[in-house]
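Appendix B. Extra example for self-study. Work through it before the problem class; the solution is given directly after the inputs so you can check yourself.
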Amino acid sequence: MASNPAYAPLHPVYRVVYKITVLLVVLIPLLATVLAIGLLWQRAVHLSDLILLAVMYALVAFGVTVGYHRMLTHRSFRAHPAVKLLLLILGSMAFEGPAIDWAATHTKHHARADREGDPHSPVEGFFHAHLGWIFRDGDADPKVYCRHLLNDRIVTFVSKTFLLWAVLSLAIPFAIGWLVGGWPLALTGLLWGGLVRMFLTHHVTWSVNSVCHTFGKREFETTDRSRNEWVVGLLAFGEGWHNNHHAFPRSAFHGLHWWQFDFSGYLIWTLERLHLACEVYRIPPTLLMRRSVKAVQETTSPVAAPQSDAQEDEALVERVG
Ligand SMILES: [Zn+2]
Ligand SMILES: [Zn+2]
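Solution. Structure tokens for the complete assembly:
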């Protein structure tokens, strides 16, 4: 989970219950994945299990990357209400917390990236950035970081019904498995399409916070430690081009070269062509030129000086949420 479902601070007792729940949400998929690897070793895996894993992973990952992240948090595009609802429901199925809380935490990350107050910076240790941070108190308050979302009826509806969608993400592969082959395939469907999928979605999402602020290349000067890491780029459907993203938080496209595959960007492009998305934000070419490290090195223009870059970062971060 990304954060607690907080519209008000939790009572200390509930806080303990919440942390135990988070621990279970982390541990159960891990143990289930160990079991699944054992079954794979014994070749006790069915085709339906692997199809459920692939399809559920893709749908839920798009819910997080396109729905929670680019559409909701960064307002990179505006979606048709039905598409918006569907994307937020799919994002909820990731077990990473309600949409509003996810957006608040992520906006706080951009506002304080790798400085004091960043919820998940590897400055405090790689493990902390990966998953340790979710056990820590001090969540991002939606009233501070994404107040406008509190008045959005679709967003508040999906956030308040988060648990329903999360449980449904386990019930769906179970039900499909049952329809295909009764109880045995229902249980393995739940294992692969539900729990293994949850394990992969969690650790791929968390790798953006940990790996992409530690390993990889920097193409742009930013005031944080964000990096582009192609493996995460592939697994997280384009989110691994994280230095690009911190340089241009609002851009609907994180891959900025043809070889920087960005499945989430391709989906947004497709939705736009189908008239299901509009106001898709693209980086103005002049801004892209000015922000590239190469351009900074080659020009003596005061526009590209570090001071101007920092000011531009702040202006961009202000438009995050
Ligand atoms: Zn980041
Ligand atoms: Zn972001």
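Self-check: The longest strand covers residues 78-79. If your reasoning did not lead you there, revisit section 3.
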